[in-house]
Amino acid sequence: MAASFIYIVWHYAKNLRECPRELFLLFFTKLTEYSCYGAINLAFVLFLSADAGLGDIAAGTYIGFWSIFLTLSTMLVGSVCDALGIKKTLLYGTIILLVSRFFLPLTTNIYIVSILGFIPMAIGMALMTPVLSVGIKIFTTKETAALGFGLFYTMMNVGWAIGAWIFDTIRGHFGEHVMINVPILGMELSTYQIIFMTGFIFTFPDLFAILFMREGVEMTDDKGIVITPRKKEKGHLLERTMKTVKKGAKDTAVIFKGVISEKPFWIFIAMLTVLVFVKLTFYHFHYTFPKYGVRVLGEGLKIGSIFGVLNPVMIVFLTPLFATLTRKIDSYKVMLVGTFISAGAVFIAAVPAGTFEPLMGTWFGQLVFERWLDIPADLQTPIFLALVIMTAVFTVGEAIWSPRLMQFTAEIAPKGKEGSYVALSYLPYFASKMIVGPMSGWLVATYTPEGASSYPMHHYVWYWIGGTAILSPIGLVIFKKIFLNSIKGHHVEDKNSELRPGDEEEILG
Predict the structure, then answer these.
(1) Cα–Cα distance between 335 and 400 in angstroms, integer?
(2) What residue spans define the domains of the chain?
(3) How far is Cα 246 from Cα 249, in angstroms, rounded to an integer?
(4) Distance between CA atoms of 439 and 450, rounded to whole angstroms?
(5) Which of 67, 178, 307, 495 is least surrounded by Cβ atoms within 10 Å, i.e. has the fewest?
(6) Whole-prediction pTM value?
(7) What is the predicted pLDDT for the residue at 21?
(8) Helix (H) or strand (E) holding 341
(9) Residues 236-276: pLDDT tens digits?
(10) To 10 degrees, what angle do helices 263-287 and 426-447 make?
(11) What is the pLDDT of residue 503?
């Protein structure tokens, strides 16, 4: 796997060698930022309950609404890059992240940590996320764009894996609920605050990488690397930024008003609403599973690695494979099969643990317990094996359906309005977070309550998550005729609407 990964990265880099250095600096920031966020993200709900004193439902609700704020911020400030340029947008976003991640570990007061930590961090991430994709488009040619997005996707998943490894390593070294004296700060920090502080330290390399970027760099098809100095705009930075944010909000409203009366738009929203149920499983892996793992499996164990490392590592290798194998199969069938596999996989974790008992003494059990997760003999249970198998099967399904989601969107959207439809694709996921946040807290509070000596009902958590996810493939079956007729009608209007070779990989980014 290591050799294959090196070859994948080398293959991408070799074909991108003519691109400006800004592209590779962008990949570096992608890797470090997702490593930071991957570690911090897994510690969010644990910090909110163990350190900030919120109950399970309150913590789940809090992180749900924070996630909504992050999505809303991304929608509103996505156009800021056009006003400031790539370098300045990345620079300001990184500075905001540094400030937020500096204050994040310094207090457990929920009000102070929200104002100085969580809220500015969402704004900083909202600035960083769109500009990374825009930068790759600008720093590559039409011919190399697909490779650029492919490497971008690879670095993102590697970053997630590194983040989960950091999360597990710190917890394994210091313990789950321990106060650590930090002489430099002259104060004691909890294990989760140490994870936040590590995220702050890992953000610094981004700042230095961005400073090495040049303003106005663009990769053209005919002239190669072109540097065009940006014109100095009138007005103060804050004034220009606020004007751009207002314009972004206004443009979003205009887009919505323009398409709300179109039948394809409502089919598009219905399709995304159907698929949002399986997408919400990722939310549970990031915010429900950490508490579940600590309580059911044991404190200080490598619970982050079960999904946080295994899933992205498998995705790096499986996505190109399945994209090749399914390239001639229509999107609807691929989506149906993929979502069915992912949703069905969740129920594996709900199967009685004794079912996996025969695997305990096999090479597979040894691989999981001793060579990978390093679980002490007295804490080894079949539940670990069930969760690992569930994650592996879920990831196989994800590698099948996830790359096709944007292609399916493009097939439904009328020609010339793809961008407008994609801009509004956040809406169903945005609305669903209002429900899934409290639901996440309710699940752990009901079936894995804090302080209990045992959790005989813990598998019901997966019944609920799986029962929600399975609505996606069921919905695809129920609404099959509507979706397929919409795609068919779109192709009749535009026979050239199919994706060109290589577009699938670009969309994947």
Answers:
(1) 7
(2) 19-253, 260-509
(3) 5
(4) 16
(5) 495
(6) 0.86
(7) 87
(8) helix 331-346
(9) 656 666 676 676 667 666 666 766 777 767 777 787 888 88
(10) 30
(11) 42
Q: Which fold has domain 260-509?
A: Growth Hormone; Chain: A; (1.20.1250)
CATH number for the domain running over 19-253:
1.20.1250.20
CB contact set of 54 (below 8 Å; sequence gap of 6+): 48, 62, 110
- Nearest residue to 353 (alpha-carbon basis) of 394, 294, 291, 297: 297
Specify the 3-state DSSP secondary structure of 190: strand
Beta strands of 246-358 (E only): which ranges?
A: none
Which range, of 211-220, 298-307, 370-379, averages the lowest pLDDT? 211-220
> Exposure pattern of 177-192 as b/e (b: 16+ CB <10 Å)?
eeebeeeeeeeebbbb
Angle between helices 263-287 and 382-412 (to 10 degrees): 160
Per the structure block, which two tokens stand in for 184? 């430099």
Can you tell me the distance from the alpha carbon of 114 to that of 125, in angstroms, rounded to the nearest whole number?
15
- Please indicate whether the domains covering 19-253 and 260-509 agree at the CATH topology level: yes
Dig out the tokens for 151 from the structure. 């490497």
Please name which of 502, 388, 436 lies closest in space to residue 67, comparing C-alpha atoms: 436
Q: Judge contact between 17 and 169, C-beta under 8 A.
A: no
pLDDT at 382 > cutoff 90: yes
* pLDDT tens-digit readout, 113-165: 999 999 999 999 888 877 777 788 788 887 787 788 778 888 889 999 999 99
Cα within 13 Å of Cα(112), Cβ side? 9
